[in-house]
Amino acid sequence: GNPYASAVDFSLLTRNNLAKRFYAWDPSLNTVGGYVLVDDAGSTGTYSITPASAQTNILQSGQAFFVQTTANAAASLVFNETGKSTVSNNTGFRSGNGTSEVLRTSLYLKNTDTSILADGVLNEFNNNYAAAVNMEDGPKMENINENLSIVRGTSKLSIERRPLVDVSDTLFLHLGNTTSRNYQLRFEPSNFSSVVSAWLEDTYLKSSTPISMTEPSVIDFSLAANTTSSVAERFRIVFKTSSTLASNATTVQAYQQNGVIKVDWSIARENNISSYEVEKSADGQAFKKLGAFAPTANNNTPVSYTLLDKDPLNGNNFYRVKAIEKSGDYKYSQVVKVLIGSGKAAIVVYQNPVIDKTLVLQLNNQPAGKYFVRLFNGLGQQLLSRTINHAGGSSTQSIPLQSVVSKGVYQLHVTNGKNRTTEQIVVE
Questions:
Q1: 3-state secondary structure of 82
Q2: What count of other Cβ atoms lies within 10 Å of the Cβ of residue 405?
Q3: What is the DSSP-derived secondary structure letter of residue 51?
Q4: Distance (Å, rounded) from C-alpha 117 to C-alpha 28?
Q5: pTM of the predicted model, to two decimals?
């Protein structure tokens, strides 16, 4: 327990052979309480807390907690006067580096009129993290009642840190100490820039349910008094990608213009196409048809199309183009996004790692003018130069990279003559 008569800040205590994490008991979890992991072993400067809890890195006077050793040697935690704190939250701590994609998964006891948080896990994706289990990952400490953990090999984790999401990634969830009752899984994503989609696979129902990568998702399920429905490894999260238009779709872009959103796309070779459909979504997952076009050329000549969305949403507007072939098969373009409203001004790569060698650049609430895009390899050699005429507000531009890059890491520079944005991108 904290031996001081005041609160202390765990990050200010002196740790010898101890990880920068601790476990504390939260009596408000489940029906009898549960353990909370407060963790900064990833050294981002921001504590990750799971399951969601009022507990922070501040330890109250007399509060008990567990720590984890990092080596088979003498370990100690030293309390000094400099570790004292007068606050009871973490609002004074700086935020993380902002590049991690985060997925929080929470398990709830679902009653008739209420839901009780029982446990939860956290996945952080960043290319600075290792693929293997190491000290960046937070081991699971078992509760008395229900337990939710992430399984990697022989390890059960409360926090798992790994490189950015790949379309071949799978997250294996483990349920323990469950009973015959109704439950609920809640998924809360943040900072996802990739266009990969996530699906919750249920091995008992043999179902696959989409999980939004931009908005919270809620999925109810029940456990009955049989071993099949109550198997601990019933659920897993699988990341996928939809089939996309290949080299015949050269560019897809969307931008705000005079109160509407203009969606432009061009096709280098239009042979065998029977029609196009432009689809729209508010969350990047559930799309509906916005408009349809018949091909004008239907041969190997380049052709361009435009659709105006006269009723844009306040917030995110996602678009994609569906090309329907004469055989009935169809393929999708990359997803582009336009933000309407008072969102934060930024220039970001919408999907990083870049897939299908198509760079999707997003200008959010940027002033009108010319923007100069340049791509460099690790030797500082310029591989691509492109000028974008931005009408102001928000827009998304797709830039093909097929002829200039191979798989690897590159530096992207975007400038409007006054300010410059530099971002490291990975091309897959």
A1: helix
A2: 17
A3: S
A4: 9
A5: 0.48
